[in-house]
Specification:
The C terminus is likely disordered. The protein is α/β, with parallel strands linked by helices and 444 residues long. The protein contains 19 helices and nine strands. Strand 7 and strand 8 form a beta hairpin.
């Protein structure tokens, strides 16, 4: 009986070894079939550096250069010709415009590249202990990051959203330039005609810009005639400047505190800057018309377009709507409004170490600054035109919150509202938004 038992035990062990060997073979075959390589592309203006590693992190070849062209992609594919497209995983940073053409052409070749935030790559490179930054090291870092699968791929909007984002960016840059120019003009105007602002309160109205373009300093204005100034006034409908205003300007110019030094060159500077302000303002208007044509596809008021939905919030204008849609895109890609707020960058930069706590945390600088800026401006408009958001703001201030922080709270609330409205395709209803907040507080 013991002999039969030993034989049976031996047979079982042999079968176990055979199964183990079969499983090992199948596993090795499966691994061979699923083996992937990871291609890190560090983009630059002319040539890009490429690094290729396998699943174990070993380099398959030395880092090499490719041109940012169709020929460069052909070179890349020829280097990887021993692998099928399904085995190749590509990654690149979105740090400039260079990625766009490269990404599009790789997709044509059945390769879907992973687009990475430069911040992720920088932190990964530092974590790996790289002390220096070079193109080959960046390419290796990108390859290593995508091989570890601990990245967050960036979202790429459709064409209309990309157009909106580009228009918003150029509009934002023009507006910043106009703001800087106005500061420069005011600074110079206080020197060359310090009395001007006491007579004309807003120097950048259309009528004032024409006056200053012709008579930029008190020395120029002192030589002007009353009749010529009145003619300028009458060109603009709704202008309430009259003969007395013209006399006041000329009288103030003749008795101006300005020393008169460099009046010709300073006058030319003001004239040129005012010219640029007018030109950029017209360009901003053209951009806004183009934005409106993209946002509003001809739906009647009350239609279900994203523009009509968000336009139902009092205090939110086309600039805020365009910026939100252009940068956020499809809101359903965010599983919650918290994820959206994190994307925007509306969360505090908290620093704690041991017993140290930062007293006044600042807002993170991650995320699109244009979107944060527009939401902040919209919050200012909302507390003027939206009674519910105005009450929300004053409640925060009454509770001891600083005014600027309370405005950011309104901006966050506004972003959450916009997220919910687009997600559920519902227009603004104050009862739904604020009663829900009240019920949550009571439950807490």
């Amino acid at each position: 009986m013991s002999t039969n038992y030993n034989e049976a035990l031996l047979l079982v062990r042999l079968l176990e070894q055979e199964n183990c060997l079969a499983n090992t073979i199948l596993k090795e075959k499966g691994t061979a079939m699923k083996e992937q390589i990871y291609v890190g592309i560090d983009l630059a203006k002319g040539d890009s550096k490429v690094a290729v590693i396998d699943d174990s992190g070993e380099a398959i070849c030395k880092p090499f250069n490719i041109t940012n062209s169709k020929e460069g992609i052909k070179k890349l594919l020829s280097k990887l010709s021993s692998y099928k497209t399904g085995q190749i995983v590509c990654g690149m940073e979105v740090s400039s415009n260079y990625w766009e053409n490269m990404c599009s052409y790789l997709k044509e070749k059945d390769l879907t590249p992973i687009l990475l935030n430069p911040y992720q790559v920088k932190k990964y490179r530092q974590a790996m202990g790289f002390k220096i930054k070079t193109d080959p090291i960046d390419a290796i870092a990108i390859a290593g990051l995508i091989s570890g699968r601990k990245y967050e791929s960036l979202y790429i909007s459709d064409d209309s959203m990309m157009e909106l984002r580009e228009l918003v960016r150029i509009k934002y840059s023009f507006q910043r330039r106009v703001k800087d120019l106005k500061k420069s003009v005011l600074s110079l105007l206080y020197l060359v005609f310090p009395e001007y602002n006491k007579i004309i309160s807003y120097p950048f109205s259309k009528v004032s810009i024409e006056i200053l373009s012709k008579y930029p300093t008190s020395r120029h204005m002192a030589k002007a005639s009353v009749s010529k100034l009145v003619k300028i006034f009458r060109r603009y409908q709704g202008c309430n400047f009259n003969l007395d205003k013209a006399k006041d300007l000329i009288s103030a110019a003749k008795d101006s505190f300005y020393s008169g030094k460099a009046s010709r060159s300073r006058g030319m500077t003001i004239t040129m800057q005012l010219d640029e302000i007018s030109s950029l303002s017209l360009k901003v208007k053209d951009i806004e018309d183009e934005i409106r044509s993209i946002l509003d596809p001809g739906d009647p008021p009350g239609g279900s377009s994203s523009y009509n939905i968000l336009n139902s919030i009092k205090g939110v204008g086309i600039g805020t709507i365009a910026t939100f849609i252009g940068y956020v895109g499809d809101v359903t890609r965010f599983s919650s409004s918290d994820k959206l707020i994190s994307f925007i960058g509306f969360y505090p930069n908290i620093f704690e170490s041991g017993k140290y706590r930062k007293k006044n945390p600042t807002i993170q600088k991650a995320g699109p600054r244009e979107l944060r800026y527009m939401l902040y401006l919209a919050s200012v408009a909302c507390i003027k035109h939206n009674s519910q958001l105005r009450k929300y703001y004053h409640d925060k201030v009454s509770a001891g919150m600083p005014a600027k922080k309370a405005l950011i709270k309104v901006a966050v609330k506004l972003a959450r509202m916009m997220y919910s409205m687009l997600k559920h395709k519902a227009e603004y209803e104050s009862s739904r938004v604020f009663m829900q907040s009240l019920s949550l507080k009571k439950a807490a």
